Amino acid sequence: MKSATMQIFSGLVKCADCGCSMSFATNKSVSKPFSYFNCTSYRQYGPKHADCTAHYVCYDTLYAYVLSRLRYWSAQADVGEEHLKGQLLHANDREQQRMTRMREAELKRAQKRQKELDRLFSKLYEDWAAERITEYNFNALSEKYQTEQAEVLEKIEQLQAELATEQQATVSIGQWIDLIHQYAYPEELTAEMLNALIEKIVVHERRPCRIWTRWSALPPHWMLI
Fold first, then answer.
1. What is the model's pLDDT at position 94?
2. Which domain holds residue 17?
3. Are 150 and 144 in contact (CB under 8 A)?
């Protein structure tokens, strides 16, 4: 196993409570010294001021588990890429479908409201031109409608972008599988490999760690520590 002093997990290990990166350290005060990661915020500010606790993850435990997961995905890729793509696509399928339906429904509501605002604005202008409302009321309502129009348009663009991202998931799968082949059956971990395949490793206090891959649609792996 690689020497822990290389800190190949640098920047990847995060505290679940405060979101800070976790710092690398070695406990040499015991008969069998060991290296670990604990929260930078807790280490810097202590229990009175930090937003988290002194929880940690052992370096050797983390190293062994991550290595085993990467070897597992290598084996899955060897079984067959189409089979693996199917696994990955359906790994979070129900949740994705639910989120897609929610976004599509929200997009329809926003687009409907956009059309309503266009009609209201047109009617407002007609009323002002025909002197059915005062200029003061016209300006007040005009500002109100314009503000809402901008908010609705921003919401529509955001939802359309999110839906487009979901549709590109299969492309991401292919790229991720290519990376798995590139780093197939690793004998040891490297910083380059970890940064290519893993987005972050979140360490909880009384729950398993969660390992998030670079392919965001793949649910995180829970690591018992």
1. 62
2. 4-81+187-223
3. no
